[in-house]
Amino acid sequence: MKRYITVLLIGWLSVICVAQDSLRIRLDSLLCHPMFETSQVALMVYDLTADSALYERNARQTMRPASTMKLLTAIAALDRLGADYRFCTRLYHTGTVIDSTLVGDLYCVGGFDPMVSDGDVNAMAATLRDMGIGCLRGNVYADRSMKDAVDYGEGWCWDDDNPLLTPLSVGRKDHFTERLCRELEDNGILLDSVQIGIGRCPAQAVLVSVCSHTIDEVLERMMKMSDNFYAEALFYQLAASTGSKPATAGDAQRVVRQLIRRLGLADSHYRIADGSGLSLYNYVSAELETLLLRYAWRHENIYSHLSQALPIAGVDGTLEKRMNKTAACGNVRAKTGTLTGVSSLAGYCTAANGHALAFCIINQGVLRGQAGRLFQDRVCTVLCEPWGNNELYNDHTAVVP
Fold it and tell me: How far apart are the first and last CA of the chain?
């Protein structure tokens, strides 16, 4: 019986080795394309089920991650803040209500919620109306003290369409107090010589209303649509979680570095500049992103929320039109990344043998983003197909144009 079990075990291991050898051959074949004579690639594939690396090519080289940087932000946020975290914008008042007139000031306290809409501001104004207030005799102040006054991220290109990093916005625009005043009037509240300004909310102010959105709501748009404003909002929640006020990008960077050290990696080997990947100062490795994906997968409280937010190949988000009619369609869940000269993809898929895989692919120095995307799609297709008995991809011209 022992001999029989030993024979079975040896046979099973042989099958695994053959399959892994086939995978390596096929990925090596893809990497022989002439595009890599003028560009660089970092690639790592990790078998989460077996807890072992399957394939590595330049996995430790630091490269610009583009929007796969959002994976670092999302995982660090779910790890530190928790899945029950909410983004909040608060309205306070000072003074007293005399004969339906509020003799005092309103303070709009921003918490860098990227989802605040006109409807949310209207609901705040309606709360004041429902309190029986028909007139405001005071001023309306914007409290932006949650974060510093830096409007843009470190290393952002000046000629990009960059989001303004304000902690108090509505519809992404920095006109919250103006919008609130219009909504107050629309709700029948008279503004008696009201002025708009910027000020810190006093400690004795009375809470009127809270507008909030869940971290899942923010993650969905941040990851599915690669929304940079949402990513920076989450980045500054990390910063605020340190207790710093105003919060800074440096505070968030330290939180991400703490997580990197917990992975067993040296945080000094990487450069963390922002939360969205817009910065040209970000430098990470395929190994770092893959091990972060492994960390998330091993923590269900992180993975369950991260995985549902990731784009699905051939289904939605930034992967809706990619990998259609391949084994990767509906299988791959991954974050895309695109900057000039950079194309990246990192996430999860399930191999034909049922094993869960994590992977990261960073193409750098590619003048045409489509070339990087087609290479990544081919890698994902290989990962999702059976490894042991398919023909090898030797026609390199079929990989990318």
Answer: 56
Strand partners, 63: 284
Assign 387 a pLDDT band (cuts: 50, 70, 90): confident
By three-state DSSP, how is residue 149 classified?
coil
Q: Which residue has the higher pLDDT, 45 or 4?
A: 45
What is the pLDDT, as a whole number, of residue 21?
A: 86
Q: What is the DSSP letter of 344?
A: E
SS3 content of the chain, % helix, strand, coil (to 5): 40, 20, 40
Give the model's confidence band at 398: pLDDT under 50 very low, under 70 low, under 90 confident, else very high.
very low
The secondary structure element, H or E, covering residue 211 is strand 206-214
16 Cβ contact partners less than 8 Å away, ≥ 6 residues apart: none
Q: Which residues pair with 143 in a beta bridge?
A: 109
Q: How far apart are CA 359 and CA 43, in angstroms?
A: 7
User: 3-class SS at 54?
Assistant: strand
Distance, CA of 319 to chain centre? 15
**Residue 88, both tokens:** 């909040």
Helix, coil or strand: residue 348: strand
CATH topology of domain 86-214: D-tyrosyl-trna(Tyr) Deacylase; Chain: A; (3.50.80)
CATH pick for 30-83+219-398 out of 3.40.710.10, 3.30.230.10, 3.80.30.20, 3.30.70.270: 3.40.710.10
Taking the domains of the chain in order of start, what are their residue ranges? 30-83+219-398, 86-214
- pTM comes to 0.92
